[in-house]
Amino acid sequence: MILRVISNFLSQCHRVSLKEFNTGRCWKKQLNIAKDARRVDVLCYRIYLSYRLVDVTARVLEKKSPCNFLVFGLGHDGLMWNALNHGGRTIFLEEEESWIQQMRRFPMME
User: Fold this and answer.
1) Is the pLDDT of residue 11 over 60?
2) CA 31/CA 29 separation, integer angstroms
3) pTM over the 0.85 mark
């Protein structure tokens, strides 16, 4: 479910111009994705990061983007991290083959 929510967000952002994406309107969409991801994780007992940690990281990415962002470990929040670093390069390091195979379905993931 979380991947569907984030995929929907990504498809919406592709319809937005770069100038509009960098304004506050898309920032609100990004925060909503973080909130939705947290809600889904709580329902499925898959809590990785608190909303507060996601919010702080998202704000740093917004100020510094585009940037090179290294994430250790793939998870249900992978597409969210990729989306929050709009225009930048997000690389995931993962040793678990099953996670790597799941994320290969998304060509924007590295």
Assistant:
1) no
2) 5
3) no
Is residue 29 within 8 A of residue 5, CB to CB? The reply is no
Q: Which residues pair with 7 in a beta bridge?
A: none
- What pLDDT score does 74 carry? 82
CA dist 52 to 23, 49, 73, Å?
21, 8, 19
Neighbouring C-beta atoms of residue 67, cutoff 10 Å = 13
Q: To 10 degrees, what angle do helices 24-43 and 51-64 make?
A: 150
Task: Note the pLDDT tens digit of each residue in 29-86.
Answer: 655 666 665 555 544 445 466 777 778 888 888 888 788 888 888 877 777 788 888 8
Q: How are the residues of the chain apportioned to helix, strand and coil, as percentages rounded to the nearest 5?
A: 60, 10, 30
Q: In angstroms, rounded to a whole number, what is the distance separating the alpha carbons of residues 5 and 97?
A: 24
What residue segments make up the domains of the chain, in order of their start? 2-103
